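Suppose you are handed a protein chain with no further information: no name, no annotation, nothing but its sequence. What can you learn? This example shows the usual starting point.
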Amino acid sequence: MATVLVLWLAVCLSGTLAVDKGNFKTCDQSAFCKRQRALKPGESPYRALLETMELTKTRLTLQLTNDNNKVRLLLELYRLQGNMTRVKINELKPLKPRYEVPDVLIREPPTEPLSLLSQDENGVVLSLGVESQRVIVSARPFRLDIMEGREVLMSLNSRGLLAFEHLRIVYIALNLCQCSLFACQKAKEEEEEKEEEGMWEETFKSHSDGKPNGPSAISLDFSWPGVEHVYGIPEHADTLRLKTTDNGDPYRLYNLDVFQYELYNPMALYGAVPVMLAHSAQRTTGIFWLNAAETWVDISSNTAGKTVFGKMLDYVQGSSEIPQTDVRWISESGIIDVFIMLGPTPKDIFSQYASLTGTQSFPPLAALAYHQCRWNYNDQEDVQTVDAGFDEHDIPYDFIWLDIEHTDGKRYFTWDQHKFATPKDMLQGLMDKKRKMVAIVDPHIKVDNGGDYEGWCWPGSAGYPDFTRADMRDWWASQFAYDQYEGSMENLYTWNDMNEPSVFNGPEVTMHKDAVHGEWEHRDVHNMYGFYVQMATAEGLIQRSGGVERPFVLTRAFFAGSQRYGAVWTGDNAAEWDHLKISIPMCLSLGLVGISFCGADVGGFFKTPSTELLVRWYQTGAYQPFFRAHAHLDTPRREPWLFGPENTALIREAVRQRYTLLPYWYQQFYNTHHTGEPVMRPLWVEYPQDPATFVWFDVHTFQKHNGAQNLYIPVTMSSIPVFQRGGSIIPRKLRVRRSSTCMEHDPYTLHVALNLQRAAVGELYIDDGHTFNYDKKEFIYRRLTFANNILSSVNLAPDAQFSTRSWIERIVILGASKPSKVTLKTPDGQESQVEFDFDASMSVLTLRKPGMNAGLDWTIALQ
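A reasonable first move is to predict its three-dimensional structure. Written in structure tokens, the prediction is:
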């Protein structure tokens, strides 16, 4: 959150659950990764054939040749609007088309003209049109450098690790009738090239993977001079800053159902977003590697392993070595299609990536509130009892969830006829309290009569719809219609689990790579499967309302662009302190690559949390974008009131803090929907300047803390260390009710935290909270400003129309001086005096019941 700092002190550590690593490949067990990683830097066989260069207004094309096997590639280079460059490399004449990822880009990226600056026998220089930015293409060996002035921003193939395995024909001796004489001769020559294990077929455990056109891997290296810190490429249960991989496996991107995943490990998890950011004090840049196949990412750095003292020694001794981070991407199939985002600021990067893949969907306001879930609530009576328990203990919630046991024999879009006999009565009971439900709909269909591809999952033998097909996605979406999904109502939303896809008896617990999706193999499309499932589900929820209501869909598997369709969570975590801690960098990493709506299972999915851990997890989860408690079938019940009155009160307070800040969360999601900027951000994103220039206020005590100091703050079980930055204005609603919808018309309290210049700014966004009518300009969007002892509200969207019954009930100004009087002026020219209290010990001024409508212009003057 942009102007709230949460300080989490994890003081208890414990061991992690043990994943069965034998179920999942290492790089050495993945033939293409092992093959590509064996290549040595500095031995590139590729050179650019400058005589083949063609330059139009929109692109440069150039052939590359591999001097070892004479196979030619086609390089395409585009200058894109918004300070980006696109590089595509494909076979010049492939045996058959290679997969190019569809549906992820929101449009074909608009281009800008390229111009030739110079050319000789060694290469060409092109202008990128932005200040002194240019691209240098070197011919032998092929290399591409992007420069600004004399500074190299990024280099491609500077280490010579470009590789492009071409598709080929299997040569079978004495079977010339299968191919032309020329083709068979070529196949024979290729067969005589170095044959390595796994090129045509590989086996993992009992599963075999045939490759009828041989190896098809691609790879390319990138170098970032001046960069030590790189981020992104989720999903991994690891630190925010990515580590070097020289002494272990690369980071793996391959959507998998990893049971009891291990922490601080580059193993693949449920989702894959092939985006990496490089950040230094001078510039932030990024790489978007658009490829949906299994991908491994190697990272090395010339400063890796150096201590702070070692770096200081280099500085004192005048070492001329410039820090540099080198990254290599390796994918099993497809083409090289990479977008180079040149920033220069973090917010520029977010805007650039959003222009390619879209922004976070704008969720219904209720989806930002608290969600109660477990595997499983047993029946309708159980749901009613839990619902009543929240009212009895005065704890708000908005959504209660049902896992797989609510269905008829694990057949999705159905209800167990005995346990959930009258689902509409249950849903209506929730609706009467302005609450909602989420039911799970997994992307496998119980097989009663056989199918094309069958695997084993929760229903037993199951079929897996081909979501890469638009007609299949249309059919899936149609199943959410009220006349198809019997028992569903408008307050029922959806959770897509197991959509990696999870196949219990498949290789690495997923689908076979040589399974066929039309003309493509599963190996080409694997990381997009979950993306397509969530896309189809979200479209189904939109269609059922006639395009009026915003959907809410939670997904476990995801890819680049998944932010357009809903929320994600960090999967099946454990009730351990380390898992609580890792939820923070995991969600921060997702936010950096566009997916802001992220959370972790509060309390941990596996195992049983201690009472202290459970309370602390609620206190942390209340300040993460997606706030849901969840638990495994075999764990004891853990509704918030089952741990004694004292702990119930602590959990209640954490949840209530979430509800008071819902206006701010909603405004932040409106912002990310329009800009791509993450809701939950690392401090280097929001505050690249000197932190000493800021002041922070404890949101509970209003204690002021100046920057440029280390604070040791005692933390008790009843305290959540949260701070508001001086210079910000945050709207709250302090009348917490049973659900967010019940608070719709309640008044606002504004918390104004003054900076050292005695100024502050903020925003207030209001709409109906659940429809797409904001696209029709039906909303209120206001700028709140405090300067020169005047607090004002100004309309940021004068062409928008919306009315609200909410009013401003209280204004709390932190770091204030005592005024002699406070005057409110409204648009009709009326002036009135405002009552106030001043706490001199804390410099807090409280204005009581100024009473103006939250949607109108007004000013308040302190005199």
